[in-house]
Amino acid sequence: MMEITRDTLMAFADGQLDADASARVEAYLAANPEAAAELAQLQRQNSAIQALFAPAAAEPVPSRLDPHRLALAQSRNRWQTATRAAMIVGVLGIGMAAGWLLRPVTDNPALYNRLIADAVSAHTVFVAENRHAVEVSGDETEHLSSWLSNRLGTGLAMPDLATAGFSFLGGRLLPAPAIPGGRAAQLMYEDASGERVTLYITPATGVDGPALELVRLGDDNALYWASAIITCTIVGPQPAESLKAMANVVFAQLTPASPAPVYREL
Question: Where are the bilayer-spanning segments (predicted)?
């Protein structure tokens, strides 16, 4: 049986019920005078509202309330918001690009400085490795020397640092995009306490800079030197004097015919 609620009575007053539902409401009203009185009040309110606003309802819709105009305005607002956002992004982009274009000249360092930075980066990455610290083991010294010499386009010996207390672990080939040929060799050595030192070697072709330079970088020191044939950067946590002594041994073995360079520290 249909439940008669206030919503049902309002629907009846508005003529929204079908014949069967209207018949049930009429039977309900006949048995419930209070509900009939409430319905009569709703009907009087509806009549009053219609009488009051009928003239306005007959008027044309104002142009400012036209649905197409409202939709157009909303679309325009969204477009303007998107445009402002794009302008902000564009200004920021121009600012960043301008900042990059107007960066100081020191942001484009000399090639030898880039080699030193690459040597320190490679040292930091590979000395932390255990099983993969080197690509070719130091047990294959002849093969490693031949392979790296061929890749670098110059004869490359594997320096013996036993007199300095270091054993040869091996080496690897690394990319060096900043220089002609784009290749570098890294050789790794380790002392009895487990401290490691690396040599980062590249052809000297096209590399300008000092013959020798010592750079202190945090916990590591980097000693760079160059001959007419190769450049070598020795990197390790050892004190500067220890690296200098090591460099003399390395220099004598890698470039025996060249005079030792004069130290320059930064």
Answer: 85-102
